[in-house]
JmjC domain-containing protein D (Planoprotostelium fungivorum), 393 residues
Amino acid sequence: MKRRRPEKTTENASSPVVFKQICAHWKWFEERAKLKEMHLNSSEEMLTAKLLQSHFFQSNTQIERTQSTPKEDDHLYLCQSPIYDINGSTGPLSSFMDLIETPEKLNSINLWMGNLETKSNLHYDVSDNILCVLAGSKRITLYHPNQSLSMYPESITGSSTNHSLVDVHNVDHQKYPQFNRSQPIHFTCLPGDAILIPGGWWHQVDSSPCTVAVNFWWKSSVEEHPIHPGLELFHLKYITENVLASQRKYALDHFERDRTMAPLPSFTDAATMTEAILLGSNQHCGISYGIPVSLASVLVRELNIDQLMDVLLYAVDHHPQRLLNLLIGNVITRKMEEYENEGQKEEAEMELFYSKFFPKLDNETIPKMLDMKEQFGKRVLEYILRQLNITPS
């Protein structure tokens, strides 16, 4: 079997990459060019059909019906039909190996072919994947793995847990509102092009009529370093803690703002700023992770370090208990951590501020703030599990 290493390997691949015309020298294209010389008046579709007919196969390969254009009964779609696998197994499509070149360290090679327009379901694969287009064209829409909460995956107890419930071409925005916040990347691959799709990336593939493609799968870094048997629960807890920490931070920094909300006011003195924040604690102006966001949280988030310190010192003297309203405590904590990490104030200045602030809090306030932070974390975790379709019905 001929082997040719691609110009960019999939090791540590983190982003999709398109390789223009990397496959254009394959024997498939050489034979297609010869057929074109012999059949000058033949369409591109007819040339593809003649080339396929001359090389392969008895149709005991995997055939599946998909969503397509009219003439559904005439629709033939070869889906992930095996050409080669890591065990050296071959099938009726093995002669296709003569028409392509193969990279190293493969798991499998598969053929994809459709005579009408087709579209895959939105899904991800664990393995790294290079998809090579031989005929027709494919439009690939991709979503980063960190957008999984907006993908609405099928139930984790089902058989298609890597598939989304969303129809990308006909999104039910009421049923899947978070999908509106996703940020797709689009690529189009023509004959001779290839695209690297790293494991974990959600993708939807739309194919033109008379499309032929092959794909190569490798083990991704996730597959290369599986969870050690017996430590599954430890890994689950460790991963959950890290996910919760990052998503709780994200929930405080991003939210879907109510479009009817008026522009934020500007203030100059601590008293006016504090009163506006406390007044806004009962006014919802958006939502984050299914949790209502108050105007107070938004106002706090807009303060710089000096304004925030002035507000806290004023509030602790005049309204200590009301600091706990809704998400204010969480946002304040988040802002203080942010400013400390960025070094916007000297350590001595921060120590002076804390020496004025904390002694004025009563014995109940700090435990209440910590409890509120824990409750907020639970709500974020519940939202994550619900979005990933993990919560039992």
Summary: Residues 36 and 47 are 7 Å apart (CA to CA). The chain is about 35% helix and 20% strand.
